[in-house]
Amino acid sequence: MFKLLKITLIAVSASLLLVPSTSLADGKEFGKIYTECGLGGMFGSAIDDRTASQIVAIVTNITWDLGTTASSSHFTSEDTCVNKKAQVASFINQSYEKLEKEIASGEGEYLDALASLATDGTTSTAKYTSNLRANFAKVVASKEYTALSRYEKAKRLYEIAI
Fold first, then answer.
1. 127 and 76, same structural domain?
2. Would the CA dihedral through 46, 157, 32, 55 be positive or negative?
3. Residue 20 — very low, low, confident or very high, per pLDDT cuts 50/70/90?
4. Is the pTM here over 0.85, yes or no?
């Protein structure tokens, strides 16, 4: 069973290397559809490790139906692609240091992007940013903040951002 899974992973990885990295009409790259959409996107988003998450997503989408649900879910209903919480968590993890600075200053493109990802349209960006800054100031002011790892700091930001 393990050997079959290993062969499948190698085959899927090799086939993805052959896929051109051109963008589709709406700007989403082909590879992102296979890692963020369909059944694979749902299963993969539950895994914290980004590399493992992408492998699970790709293997699931390819083995389940050769990626049909991934591409059809992307084109018909993008909300079946990686959920908002996963997008926010990923964004915070990838840009924590920049977010930390911009939240402190109250402005910046990363802060704007976070507000856009985390809000649902019922809260204004200004109100979201104000609440985020107030709550993040409490986190940063806590005694244990400086002893936290980068991951723990990002996790704390995620908990107040979502």
1. no
2. negative
3. very low
4. no
Q: Read off the pLDDT of residues 115-147 as tens digits, 9 standing for 90 and up.
A: 988 887 778 889 999 999 999 999 999 999 999
Q: Are residues 13 and 43 in the same domain?
A: yes
Same domain for 140 and 108, yes or no, is yes
Asked whether residue 110 falls in the same domain as residue 153, the answer is yes
How many residues are given for the chain?
Answer: 162
Q: Which of 62, 80, 98 is the C-terminal boundary of a domain?
A: 80
Amino acid (one-letter) located at 31: G
Q: CB count, 10 Å around CB of 68?
A: 11
